[in-house]
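Protein in question reproduced for absentees:

***
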Amino acid sequence: MIKIFKTFGDYTEISKCENNCWVNVIEPSEKEIQKLSTDFNIPTDIIKDILDPDERPRIETDDNWKLIIIRIPVESQNKSVPFYTIPLGVFIREDLVLTLCLRNNNVLPFELQTPFKDQHKKLTGDINNVLRIFLRTGGTYIKYLTQINQQTEKIEKGLEKSIKNEELNKLLKLEKCLVYFITSTKANEIVLSKLKTYKSLSSEINEDLLEDAIIENKQALEISQIYSDIQNGIMDVFASVISNNLNLVMKQLTVISIILMIPTLIASMLGMNVPNFMEHAYWAMPTIIIASILLSIVGVVLFRKKHWF
């Protein structure tokens, strides 16, 4: 899917490329990849690198273009993990800017005209709009981290009485999300640091915007690390809680088995095919039943005094 805008960060969509336009590409097909390579003189292997989910953030330069790759968070389409990260590539040429991502996202949402529509402060230079993408990426990380924290709180409530591993599995999936976030924000931090010192770009950069992007990314990184430490602590504690809950259940079942064994023992002894003094007495059955109940009650009282039941 390909959309073309009048300028990078603008919201005026156009039908054909013109000077200083912005081309936003999401989930390109093989045919569209070939079109990008032919029309914009971008090597196919570079395009496929960006479409690789494991591609690392970096800055590359060529005679005709500059490439900045960052990692952005996205919501998962399956139940393996709620969130993960993917690469977003930004090609900057003298006559246009092209952004490329392997799937739709909230940083450069394909269904919206532009993510910068609500930002009234006009900044010149394509690199400053790249910094805006970094800024939006940091904000998106923080938004998803808030959702992860809310999910963690819900899981905690169910863990207190749980004896199964289902809640721990959910926590493990959230921990995977945090690992993805930490590694990606660290890599983005390196790219931001390089932008600050990159000779061909440093003169065009708005220092305030760069500082905001660095702070936002650092905040996302620190929150991810804090939540990851909390998750690890929760998983350790509640693994012990689940084990303890299981032990309590087993102890209660053992106590119940002992209580039920008392009337069974009496019935087994007096039900043997041997003579005893009660075989012809009409009061034998009620007496045995009452004695079984009384002994069972005595057993329950003793166990409760020892806090076993």
The chain is about 55% helix and 15% strand. The chain has a mean pLDDT of 77.
